Amino acid sequence: MYKEKGLLIVLSGPSGVGKGTVRKEIFSQNDAKFEYSISMTTRKPREGEVDGVDYFFKSREEFEQLIEQGKLLEYAEFVGNYYGTPVDYVRDTIENGRDVFLEIEVQGARQVREKFPEALFIFLAPPSLSELRNRIVTRGTETEDVISKRLQTAKEEIEMMDLYDYVVENDEVKLACERIKSIVVAEHCKRERISKRYQIMLEAE
Ligand code: 5GP
Question: Closest residue (by CA) to atom 4 of ligand 1?
């Protein structure tokens, strides 16, 4: 029997734009129809973060082993730490017909674009760069040096919007979430997906 594969949804965008907040909001609403892929990282847990919920926290050695074993769909080094997406989870979930949602930084998104060109790429954009700066500063956990590095990176990343299928401005978290969910619904209604399904049904008759 024909089983439609799930979508791979990639949410990315510049540092400090609020990807984590938007992702948490989407998954706190019970109507999210997609699965969140929990990332691996070598970063230390922040207060309140739980292993296996927020991230799988790994040592550098463990992480480098995962890279060697080909266990990561993508990975990147970001502000001194590794972050990566477990490939088996993503493939299994998609094969089972469920949509998978990645919230990753832009270098990783570029790798996914190469490996999974059929994925849905959504760029979360800041209303403006000054707004972005305010958000990073008020987060309060970063030094000036880290902030200015992150800002420089962000400027470069904004120029990378071209790689994406959709751009969602994060002017208001709830609105951004609604836009993302609408994009996913629209993607499921794409003619190519629907017609393929019917084609296969007809062939089975
Ligand atoms: P944080 O340390 O604030 O949780 O995350 C830092 C950055 O890493 C964020 O931009 C977040 O989107 C990104 N990130 C989280 N998980 C992954 C991942 O699996 N792969 C990549 N490439 N980036 C990730």
Answer: 20
Dihedral angle over CA of 70, 71, 73, 75, nearest 10: -90
Nearest alpha carbon, ligand 1 atom 20? 84
Whole-number pLDDT of residue 18: 93
The two beta strands, 72-78 and 81-86, are antiparallel
pTM of the model: 0.88
Residue 116 is part of a domain; what is its CATH number? 3.40.50.300
Q: What would the pLDDT profile of 112-171 be if each residue is shown by its tens digit?
A: 999 999 999 999 998 766 677 677 777 667 788 888 887 787 777 778 788 999 999 998
Task: State how many domains the chain has.
Answer: 1
193 CA to centre of ligand 1 in angstroms: 30
